Structure prediction request, 458 residues.
Amino acid sequence: MNDRKAPNNSMPTLARRLVPVLALGSAAGALVFALDRQGGGESLTLAAPGDTEATSVEAVDATASESTAANTSPGTAASAASTSVASTVASTVTTTVPAAPAQSSGTKCQLYNGPTEWHRFGPVQVQAGVTSSGKICSVKLIQEPGDRRSQSINDWAVPVLVEQSLADQTARVDVVSGATLTSVAYSASLQAIIDAATK
Amino acid sequence: MPQPSSNRSSTAHRVHPVMGTVGSMHVYDDVAAELVEPALDEVVRELDRLEALFSTYRPDSEVSRINAGELALAAASEEVLDVFDACTWLEQVSAGAFDVRPDGPAGAVDPAGFVKGWATERAAAALTRHGLEHWYVSVGGDIVMHGEPAPGARWDVGIADPLHPGTLRATLHVEAGAVATSGTAERGLHLWDTRHGGTAHALASVTVAGPSLTWADAFATTVFVMGRSGLGWLERFEGYHAVAVCLDGELVCTSALAA
Prediction:
């Protein structure tokens, strides 16, 4: 984390390149935390550090043929994940994020969705594949900040705009958005009106 | 003057001066005050904490110490680095219209154009942590909304008329999410960017609605600097919509809003 640089004229490219690395690293860390809490069931509820709400993580069988989650001892998975996650993340981000989970010879890659982390550019969620021996076989960002496929953005309906004329100021509103004058007094008075009206 | 929607009233509210303007929190959940008050306390504490971290008016803030050369960026807190990273990204995708060094390349870093929305969104999350579902938090007219003001209702957000203070120019009916406005009152005429068409394309105010207040606020600032051409630039960010008031009072919008 200490290698991030100031966003000055010479550094923006590096800073920009580092952002997904750091975002992924942190989200992967949360995933390791999640795995550490795993009880072996198909679904578990957990709260990552700093997460605003508990997130349900579902174990999804990558091949839909057998479930290896129940066979994986939590301790093994967590410790193996802790040791291998750094190298996995590093190799993942220097290339592109693999679209399909990597398969180790003969072992199934069980996919887990990490908790959605609120990060600098928005929600970040990592999906990791873990083999029955507890090795991480894939790491993939399934929800990226600014992701055009992001649920939260797609589900967000386009606002409806209603124009107001100066002659007609009868609109009933819940709250007012406006450029704040540097004068605190103006803001305070506008807010006081709203507060009094909505009391 | 703006009137509240009928049959809608918050069950608890708080007003708190912060970041050179006024913060206002309204909770619509039907719960006892003793459950809401600690949540509001936490929002206030968090707003104050973040202001203390970023304010360039406070010599002891991290940003002031970075500008004074007393604090290496690498030693800055995670939150300051987060904001600097995000500002760097926005500078790049806006071709410099968004600028974290308002006084030029050699000037001091002032992420104030980014921090207000970011900090408000972050602080408001405390309400969700306390189990509250229906609320809004507004800091100087940058608003994050959660849930509904009344069952089945959208939020009616009035857009202040920058040319006729005290009146509304339009109303946005929005889902839970965010609305932020940037304008001359906030940024000053000198920030109009000649690279993007100069004053001929200048706007009196820009209001951006979207899922995240961090980005609604940052995009509003950026589009305002860009002028009218900024509306086309914003189209690349799915889920974000803008309505701008031109200097002659005309309303112009991004394509989805204009429909």
Residues 12-150 of chain A form one domain. The radius of gyration of chain A is 23 Å. Chain A touches chain B through 66 residues (CB under 8 Å).
